[in-house]
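re: the backbone from monday

yeah here it is again, tokenized this time
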């Protein structure tokens, strides 16, 4: 998972993350919230194609999930994100989340399209958000009611 995410980070422009992550970093994210829900997508040979998680939103509370989605570079548009979201949506409902929040860089057209196509609706904007490397971007907030 770290290798897949680090390739996305290195390319830039589609995630707010700017520094490489390690397996230990991801393990910390997984262990950091007992209400976090993680899903992976693999091909028949076991190659990781993507992953998605929802965890409680730090400002909106325990019943609002904050989502993140990552698909292997060069493998987007194959239904990976759709399959991941179907699993995440069902698990989030079962876990008692009431809605899911997505924060997408305003310059990430594919991310905006992905969440829009899943049924997320705009509900706000974070202007001039500072990324870890000092880059400033707006973030579009999208909401999916469960």
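seq for it, each position gets an aa:
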């Amino acid at each position: 998972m770290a290798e897949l995410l680090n390739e996305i980070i290195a390319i830039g422009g589609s995630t707010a993350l700017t520094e490489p992550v390690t397996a230990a970093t991801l393990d910390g994210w997984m262990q950091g919230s007992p209400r976090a829900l993680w899903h992976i997508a693999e091909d028949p040979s076991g190659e990781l194609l993507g992953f998605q998680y929802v965890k409680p939103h730090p400002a909106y509370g325990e019943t609002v999930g904050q989502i993140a989605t990552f698909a292997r570079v060069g493998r987007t548009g194959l239904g990976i994100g759709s399959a991941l979201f179907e699993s995440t949506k069902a698990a989030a409902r079962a876990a008692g989340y009431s809605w899911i929040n997505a924060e997408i860089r305003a310059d990430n057209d594919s991310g905006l399209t992905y969440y829009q196509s899943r049924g997320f609706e705009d509900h706000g904007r974070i202007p001039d958000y500072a990324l870890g490397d000092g880059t400033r971007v707006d973030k579009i907030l999208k909401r999916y009611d469960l």
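The chain has a mean pLDDT of 92. The beta strands are 37-42, 48-57, 61-71, 99-105, 121-130, 136-145.
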